Amino acid sequence: MWLTPVMIALTSAPAEASGEAEEAEVTFNLGAKAYGQGDYQRALAQFLASHRLAPNASVAFNIARCYARLDKYAEAFRWFTIAGDGLTDPNVRSLVEQELQAITPQVTVYEITSDPPGATVYHDRKDLGAIGVTPLRIALTPLKAGATRRFLFEKDGYEAVTVE
Known about the structure:
Layout: H1 18-36, H2 40-53, H3 57-69, H4 73-86, H5 90-103, E1 108-112, E2 120-123, E3 130-133, E4 136-140, E5 151-154, E6 161-163
Antiparallel strand pairs: 1-4, 2-3, 2-5, 5-6
Helix pairs in contact: 1-2, 2-3, 3-4, 4-5
């Protein structure tokens, strides 16, 4: 069950230089056009580029929508969470919550904590990069029967720990 497609307009966000802001706006507009045409893969690429140039909760929302339309639910969950943390409009926050409710049955949500908090968390392999810092709420693709998932925790001054 998906909601009617809604685009969140790009709002001004600080950028290092006006050239980056202009490029972010151009790539956002290209993404919006592609989304309107149903080309979610191309829209995603444009929105990701725009977000790299000028991080913005509204663009994060659009990235999440693209991932959801591409059935990449774990990624959509992450980006909806990022968007929800930065959006203030109650109507848009409500849309985020509705999308998260629709996605949640498609993923496994982990609430990851550590004592002390602030540990860097890796999923399966360190060379793939960190997935966040504790406390962390993350959605991952459900495991196949019999499979296990590993998390590695690191924090300066503490021994690294792997949990399966």
